[in-house]
Amino acid sequence: MPEGDAPTIVSLNPCADAILAEVAMPGQLLAISHYSHNARSTSMDIDAARTFAATGGTVEEIVALDPDIVIGSSFMAPATRAGLERLGIRVETLGIASDVTTSLEQVRWLASLSGNSDRGEMLVARIDAEMADSAWAGAGLPTVLWQPGGIVPGEGALVTQLMEHTGFASHSAARGLQQADYLSLERMLADPPHILLVAGQERAQAHPILDQLTDLRTEQLAPNLLFCGGPTIIRAVERLKGIRREIAS
Which one of 40, 55, 109, 248 is separated from 70 by 20 to 30 angstroms, measured CA to CA? Predict the structure, then answer.
């Protein structure tokens, strides 16, 4: 159990899972979301995730853990929230971070909520250091990030900011595609970028015809690097930085 008056926490939010796993003290994080126990959906190291209990998010499961605070998402079922609040359990919501600044604010907020602001500042310092080390001074290469489902990110997405920061210009945004717009294989072939970052497993995203585009360089990007901030920023930027520097060399 955590020491002193530190609140115990259950997280139902995979992005909060990754942050709390770093800022909470041992015994303070009672459970994380079941998404983080799935290698394909986790936003944190799978081995680290499996050191924590997981919950499917039902009121019954959460009440059995007897937390002081539950961290949910904007998709949390209203009935679940109402049921927890009726039982006297504090419920907080972590939204989607659309940029690095917002993500750092979320890290500090969760760290403060858990009574561990110093640990939050340590994580913020690590993110700041990685961002400083990965900044690309030259022009960005026209790049498409092809996400699961064949969609692309919009200009207001965190991953788009990380791409631009590391030297990749959004080719899809330059062609008028917005957040979650579908990019067909035909459109890709008609107007290919310089770099294709593939984060999905759709048939089109592995089509052999892509190999015939001699001026197109294709790289894989893990889907679990796309949607969360906090420590996920470090892993995403390290991968993007590595790709960009390899291209430059």
Answer: 40
CB-count burial class (<10 Å; 0-12, 13-18, 19+) for 179: middle
| DSSP annotation of 160 | H
142 membership: H or E segment, kind and range: strand 141-146
CA dist., res. 233 & res. 110, Å (int): 16
The residue to which tokens 């709390």 are assigned: 20
Q: What is the pTM of this model?
A: 0.94
Q: pLDDT digits over 23-65, tens only?
A: 999 999 999 999 999 988 898 999 999 999 999 999 999 999 9
Q: How far from the centroid of its chain's Cα atoms is residue 70's Cα?
A: 20
Closest CA to 232 of 47, 15, 12: 15
Contacts 24+ apart (CB under 8 A), 186-194: 188/144, 188/146, 189/213, 192/216, 193/141, 193/142, 193/143, 193/144, 194/141, 194/142, 194/143
